[in-house]
Specification:
Order of helices and strands: HHEHEEHEE
Radius of gyration: 28 Å
Number of domains: 2
Strand content: 15-25%
Strand order of the largest sheet: 3-2-1-4-5
Number of helices: 4
Helix content: 25-40%
Number of strands: 5
């Protein structure tokens, strides 16, 4: 039974069904936004690095400083005075120049320890930056590196001789 104190337009079954569907939709959207999984800071940073590694432009840069967390290296069981080939910085501070503007940036590379172990700060590097936002840049990602590393192994070139009959 439809209540009689409602205006005639609200008393129709189609209107009541539409209002009910709207309430159910609003509750569903609210539940979705309250319970959805939000990306972590690490996931957001990894997506940013991947995006720059794929669409970023490349320019030359220079490492200004590297920062190594001594507490983390002591907790990981590394020796007190590691040699340069085993050092893995946590932060790399670098600069680069685009269209007459010099940018100075820092990248947290603690999640990329294997790609930055033994970097050479005396050589130029390559920097990938977003074309629409040149301040958004990286020097290393999961799939790309603009760093120069120390040679930890000697690479020997194999020569092949082909005989022509």
């Amino acid at each position: 039974m439809i209540p009689s104190h409602l205006p005639p337009a609200l008393g129709e079954p189609q209107t009541l069904a539409a209002l009910g569907a709207g309430v159910v939709a609003a509750i569903s959207v609210s539940i979705y936004f309250l319970t959805r999984k939000r990306p972590t800071a690490e996931e957001i940073e990894r997506e940013r690095r991947d995006m720059l590694a794929h669409i970023g432009r490349i320019t030359d840069g220079t490492i200004m400083d590297t920062m190594i967390n001594q507490a983390a290296s002591a907790a990981s069981g590394e020796p007190e005075m590691p040699d340069a080939a085993t050092l893995a910085p946590n932060i790399i501070v670098y600069n680069y120049r685009i269209a007459g503007v010099t940018y100075e940036c820092a990248q947290d590379v603690s999640a990329l320890a294997e790609q930055v172990r033994g970097i050479r700060s005396d050589l130029p590097i390559q920097v990938r930056y977003a074309p629409h936002n040149p301040g958004n840049s990286i020097v290393v990602a999961d799939s790309w590196s603009g760093l120069r590393l120390n040679a930890t192994q000697s690479h020997t070139a194999e020569t092949h001789t082909d005989s022509v009959a």
